[in-house]
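REQUEST FORM: STRUCTURE PREDICTION
Request ID: SP-0412
Submitted by: Lab K.M.
Chain count: 1
Length (residues): 110
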Amino acid sequence: MGTMVVISTTAVPDRVRGSLSRWMVEPSPGLYVGTLNARVREKLWAAVSETVGEGAAVCLHTADNEQGFTILTAGERRRKVTDFDGLQLIQFTSLPEEEEDTWPELPEGW
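STATUS: Completed
RESULT:
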């Protein structure tokens, strides 16, 4: 029997969206929900994570653990899943240091 699966995507190629929409419903842009068995979920997630490109994707599905779900991620984003004594928590990574704004030198007398 299948379990509920939720996949959220950001800036992924159209082919990824097409693959997801074959198996799941898209109630909001980039958000996919469906009931999938483990084999289909694993194959679909493998395809998504291999082709995510510059975008990102997050998959949540029910699991037999303390939280009742598992989080999988693909692509680079500030939010990272961190295991803390068996619990999956979200950790924010620091922003890359922004380059200082450099103003052109003004002529004397300004």
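NOTES: The chain has a mean pLDDT of 89.
Reviewed by: T.R.
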